[in-house]
UniProtKB/TrEMBL annotation:
Signal peptide coordinates: none
InterPro entries reported for this sequence: AminoTfrase-like_pln_mobile, MAIN-like
Keywords tagged on the record: Coiled coil
Coiled-coil segments on the chain, per record: 405-439
Any Pfam family: PMD
Domain Aminotransferase-like plant mobile positions: 2-345
Source organism (scientific name): Colocasia esculenta
GO biological process: meristem maintenance
Domain of life, source organism: Eukaryota
PANTHER family: PROTEIN MAIN-LIKE 2, PROTEIN MAINTENANCE OF MERISTEMS-LIKE
Official protein name in the record: Aminotransferase-like plant mobile domain-containing protein
Amino acid sequence: MGFGEIFRIERMRVDPALTQALRSRWDAEASAFAFPWGHMIPSLEDVSRITGLRVYGRAVRGYTYPCYQYLAEHLLDLPVERRSSLVPRVALQESLGLCEAGKNAGESEDEYLARLARVSRRELASEPGPQADLDLRCFLVLFLCRLLFATRGDVVHCLFLPLLEDLGEVGGYAWGATFLAHQFDGLSTSERQTSTSGFYPFLQVWAYVHLPALGRGDLTRPGLMPIARRWDSLRDTRHLVDQLERLQEAIDSYPYLDVVWQPYLGEGDEGQPWLAQARPYFGRSVWLHALNLVLPLNLFLTQRSLGLRQTVVEFPIENGERKGKTVKSDVTTDDAYLQAYALKYGGKVYKSARHQVDVTGEIASLRALLQSAQSELVRVRCTGAASASSSRSAGGSPSLLEARLAGAVLRAEEAQRHLEEQERDLQLTTEHAMELQGERDRFRVEA
C-alpha cells in the first residue's frame, strides 16, 4: 500500500524547540520558510527520501463531511455518535487486540514494537476475509489519522475513511504529496504551538540535513533507508524557553555557506525503489491535495535547491494552473532576488531578541536605500518628462521608452512606500523588544 518504508522508521524523540523555531519562520503567503538567507521549502524529494512515502499516483481529492456515522458502522463496524467525524481511539485499539498490549517492564522500544506487530499479524491471520478487511481498515484509520495526519486530542477522525472502502485502491494514492500539504497546513497555524500535527520526525530530519550546523540531530544509524531511520534528536535538558532562544539566535546568525540546499547529491537510489517513479516530480512546482485542502508547492521560490540561481519572484504569488511546472532559471546570480527579498521581509526574518534589539544599523541601511530610491525616482521622472516632451514636439505617439519609464516610476514609488513601512516596523519592533528585555531582566533580578 506504499506505507512499508515509514513503518520501518524507529521511534524518535520529539524536539519541540526546533519545531517551534521553524514554525515561527513559516510564511503562509509564500508557503515557505523565510530565513535570513532566503526562502526554503520542504519538497516532494524531501518527503520521498526522508519517509519513503510515495509522492506519485492519484491525488487524494475529495470532500469532508460533518458526519461519518454510516461509513464508520459500515466499513469499521464501530459506533460513531450522530453528526460526528470522530472514532474513540480505545475502540479502534480494542478492535485490533491492542488495548491490553502495554509495554512490559524492561522491554526495549524495538522489542515492544516487534511484539505489537506479532499481535497484529496473529489477529489478522485468525480472522476470516470480511473481518480481516474490517481490521485492516481500522488499522489504516488509526495509522493515517493518529500518526500520519494526526490532530490534537485523543480521538481519531474519519476524514480519509471514504478512500478506504476499496482496499485495493489505497496503494494507488499519492499519500506523500498529501502528507506535505498537511505539514504546510499545520505550519500555518499559531506560532505558539510547540508541536506540529502529524508525523513529527519529518520536519526534524529535514532540519538535520538542510541546516546541520544547528546541531540538533544525532546520526546514529548511517546508511539506512529511508533517511529518517538514520537519525535521532539529541537530548537537551535545558528549559524549553532557553532552548528556543538559543535556536533562534543560531538561525539568525547561521552561516549562509553552511546551508545545504542539495543534501541528497551524494545519495544513490540503492535500497529506494520508489524513487524511480517519484523522480519526475522532484523539480516541479505543483499543487498538493489533501481532500478539499489544496496548497501550492512553490518550488520556484527555492531554485537553489535544484542547483540553479534564484530569480526574483513577485508578490503576491499568482499561480492559477494546477498542473505541474518544471522550475527553470537563466540568471547567473542571486543578487536581484536577495535585494527583493530584503525589501519584502526586512528585519522580520530575525526572531531572536538580540537581533531584534540591535537593528540600528539596519534602519540606517534602509534610510540609505530610501534616499537612493528617491533619487532614482526624481531622475526617472525628469527623463520621462523630457522624453514625453520630445515625442509631443515631433508629433509622434508615446514611445515604448515612455511606457517603460512609467513602469519604472511606479516601481520606484512602490519601493519608497515599502521602505518607509519597513523602517516604521523596525522601530516598533525595537521598542517592543527593548521593553520585553527590560521585563525579563527585572524578573531575573527578582528571582
